[in-house]
User: What shape does this take?
Amino acid sequence: MFPWNKIDTVLLDMDGTLLDLHFDNHFWLSLVPQALCQQRQIPPAEAQQLVESAYAKVFGTLEWYCLEYWQQELGLDILALHHTLVDRIQLRQDSMPFLGTLAKYGKRRILVTNAHPHSLALKLKHTELASGLDEMLSSHTTGYPKEHPKFWRHLFNEFSLDPSRCLFIDDSEPILLAAQKAGVGYQLGIKNPDSQKPHKQFADFPAIDDYHHLLVSLEQAQRD
Assistant: This one.
């Protein structure tokens, strides 16, 4: 699938790529509107419309991913609400075997996420994900989301990367495109970021629904 002899580093998104996106979708699309409905004593449909409108205003920006922003914008204790759903934070079943195989064959594993540091810390606490990674970078520490070219320049400098020898895996096609434009050599989409929703279709990038496909090609490359 990929020329593994030309790939030194695998850059990995977190939510929807290594973790099941069901937690985030349920939180932002169900729990937050419910909490707003209760707090403001407004009808569910009005609460839903209010949050969808608020989300649309900042989609694709760093604010979209910022817990402090949403706490102020919606007047809700977003982090406290996160803690009420920790049982839904789940690794994809294929993530740790894949990360382990990457380590076995000497591939550097770097988490690159738009998740807020508080959200990242919570998810690391409730999964074994950290044990499968070599480095991590939250876009909030760079001041730019992954959609912005300056994020990628910061990433390459921070970890002394040759972008042409990196594979980037993400469930967002616009972010895969941003990585490609920044010079990342290889991109791969994830078709099934949310275990409770239908598969996504990718127009411009190869995509998989199980890391087993990559494991097979990686092990085959080692034998050739």
Summary: The radius of gyration is 18 Å.
